[in-house]
Amino acid sequence: METTQMLKGILEGCILAIISKKEVYGYEMTNQLSRYGLGMVSEGSIYPVLLKLQRQKYIEGIMKPSIEGPMRKYYHLTPQGRKYLKAFMRQWSEMSQGVERILAEIGEE
User: Fold this and answer.
1) How many angstroms separate the Cα of 76 from the Cα of each of 73, 81, 93, 99?
2) For residues 92 and 46, what is the distance between their CA atoms, to the nearest angstrom?
3) Pseudo-torsion of CA 5, 33, 80, 92, nearest 10°?
4) Which of 5, 29, 39, 106 could form a disulfide linkage to 34, CB 3.0–4.6 angstroms apart?
């Protein structure tokens, strides 16, 4: 299985989790994902997810001036986004525990 296929399903939750800590702009999001070990996520793949999350009203973007150049769009969670993130975290925990049990059992063979 290609890593990108697996990653598509969890990228939304990861992005929401990062945004939940503080307002973040797109390029900074890429750097943070890389810092957490998701360096395979390109800046180009983040923006469609951010747009989708905005359409779903889970995040909002605000243009702010930048010291280093043009204005940047900073994203923050909405109340709906916080609810969605909590649901994602619960589902991820259940699913990842199940996968870990399966893989651990196979590893014992």
Assistant:
1) 10, 9, 23, 31
2) 20
3) 50
4) 39
CA distance linking residue 107 with residue 103, whole number of Å:
6
Helix spans in 26-78 (H):
26-35, 43-55
CA distances, 77 to each of 39, 65, 70, 109 (Å): 23, 20, 23, 44
Q: Which candidate, 50, 56, 55, places its Cα nearest to that of 75?
A: 50
The domain tally of the chain equals 1
CATH number at residue 55: 1.10.10.10
The one-character DSSP state at 58 is S
- Span 84-99, pLDDT tens digits: 999 999 999 999 999 9
Which residue range is the domain that position 23 belongs to? 3-108
Q: What pLDDT, on the 0 to 100 scale, is given for residue 13? A: 94
